[in-house]
């Protein structure tokens, strides 16, 4: 066993600052501080050097070019994400290494292991199937799949033929699927009959059918994960296993331009309408590859497990492209962490000898609550590194993760990034450190991150401000919002201008340059690691014919980080009741999905409004958090606040 990470105890205030072990320093790809200065002096050169590690059909002519909302990387270069994920390793003689381990939820089912060669074969076959269905380079393909290996196969197949995928989280509702398929203009959708979740067979095909209705989708490829006993729409629906049977396994990877669209991924903004974040091929490939390698210390033979869902950016970059481009084994688990019992996570780590675990604070808090007895039953000594992502982590969860799961020897890499960034932006590196609870760390080498005040001036160390990323932008940064470049400009480049990307996150920095993320500064919530706009939940609730007005705010939650709380004014004549509450929850389930369910629905007579009639969510937020409500003099109806204080049991 490697030596324990040292505590720095000289300064009691900094007692929780950890440094890499000697073993980690020796093994890590980078362990010398100088990487930061070197990358800072020439960010373009830095990224270009990393890009050289990938396979290019044609080398780029120029590394970076900037124009407002039109920045480009690796201009003139040609490459393919799937080629870099699969063919590159096979050509190097590593085709028999395991690329993917898929662990089904039912314990009586065997895990499936696919080598790089086998994955390559399945990906090539599906790529040919898609071509046969008329999918051409540039055509968008919808993917609505659960956590099964076919989700990775489908993304890779799309990448292989240059058809941008648009993956929709499988727990999202049919309405969410429909909106995304329409916006993306997808003619083909890949889905499954269902999957297992908490021992129950979930029918996904039913949701896919409802969601495909009224969209451009003409063909639906259905993976048989369950018994296949679902209605098939003649002429539209086709079984995946039948399609791949008779098709060739030869499908040369399409030579994609660096700036060709690789995929769309919809995420929440501040309005009710999710935005299709665009990622292009070259920059995304380079940053996904190198961040996966350096952040998670990926080496030959590693068995790396990212517990995110493939429906989120974390799943795209750190289950699929990042680890596969590095040639390691990526683990996927289908189901819930408490099936058959609360030890499942640790059982999987022991069984597959996982070397790196990347998960979310919300999950860590849940494991902590379940108690030490679960992890202590298993051998977790294969773990070398731990990662966290998605929301700020609290110190208690960090220390528990570090001591109980990492045995005090594994660094915790707290990665801050976003759907828009495509890959990690701020986190300390395993061979350099330090690892400090609640602190993500320094921007990745080559990333220029600054904390600014509202006017755009950098704030001094220790003071709060807004995190901004400066040009030369990191290569994987989004190139736009699909079909809405105006929104792209307004959302990210109106605050500080075109050369400073606005992240919507608050942060502070210490004298050493370590960044602590304090959370979103807009109306975007982080519910159990799922990004959600309060406006989305509001517009879902407002679709009920019982509701006259609604306001949604977030409230802190012990496990989930944040949860939505809804203030609802019912239409006159509608009685307040638990029945109506249930009905409203159902409405949210059917319009967005269960992840967006309000934790509480409070029926009220009135909500505070400005004189111009705008709901003052700031006050509602203070009320549910027991914080000072501030100035009420500009309200149209200040009396509403007293009434609300009673309703929520306000004691602030
Ligand atoms: O507020 C930040 C939070 O998650 C937001 C991005 O959400 P999404 O696009 O869904 O991507 C999540 C996975 C990358 C950010 O604006 N966030 C993400 N990682 C962290 C975080 N907050 C604090 N610490 C993190 N490590």
**Strand composition percent:** 15-25%
Largest sheet: number of strands, sense, barrel closure? 8 strands, mixed
Strand order of the largest sheet: 12-11-8-6-7-14-15-23
Cofactors, ions and other ligands in the entry? adenosine-5'-monophosphate-propyl ester
* Class from helix and strand fractions: alpha/beta
How many beta-strand runs?
30
Which helices and strands, and how do they pair?
Blueprint: H1 22-27, H2 34-41, H3 43-51, E1 62-65, E2 72-75, E3 78-79, H4 81-91, E4 98-103, E5 112-115, H5 116-132, E6 141-144, H6 149-161, E7 165-167, H7 174-184, E8 188-192, E9 194-197, E10 200-203, H8 204-212, E11 219-223, E12 237-239, H9 240-245, E13 256-257, E14 261-267, E15 275-280, H10 281-295, E16 303-306, H11 313-325, E17 329-333, H12 344-352, E18 356-359, H13 361-370, H14 373-376, E19 385-389, H15 395-405, E20 412-415, E21 449-452, E22 465-470, E23 480-481, H16 485-493, E24 500-509, E25 515-520, E26 524-527, E27 530-533, H17 534-541, E28 547-557, E29 561-570, H18 578-591, E30 600-603, H19 617-624, H20 639-648
Helix pairs in contact: 2-3, 4-5, 4-6, 4-11, 5-6, 7-8, 10-11, 13-15, 19-20
The chain binds adenosine-5'-monophosphate-propyl ester.
Describe this structure in words.
The chain has 652 residues and is α/β, with parallel strands linked by helices. It contains 20 helices and 30 strands. The strands form 8 sheets. Strands 12-11-8-6-7-14-15-23 form an 8-stranded mixed sheet, sandwiched between helices. Strands 5-4-17-16-18-19-20 form a 7-stranded mixed sheet, with helices on both faces. Helix 11 links the parallel strand 16 (303-306) and strand 17 (329-333). Bound molecules: adenosine-5'-monophosphate-propyl ester. Adenosine-5'-monophosphate-propyl ester binds next to helix 11, strand 20, strand 24 and strand 25. Adenosine-5'-monophosphate-propyl ester (PRX) binds next to helix 11, strand 20, strand 24 and strand 25.
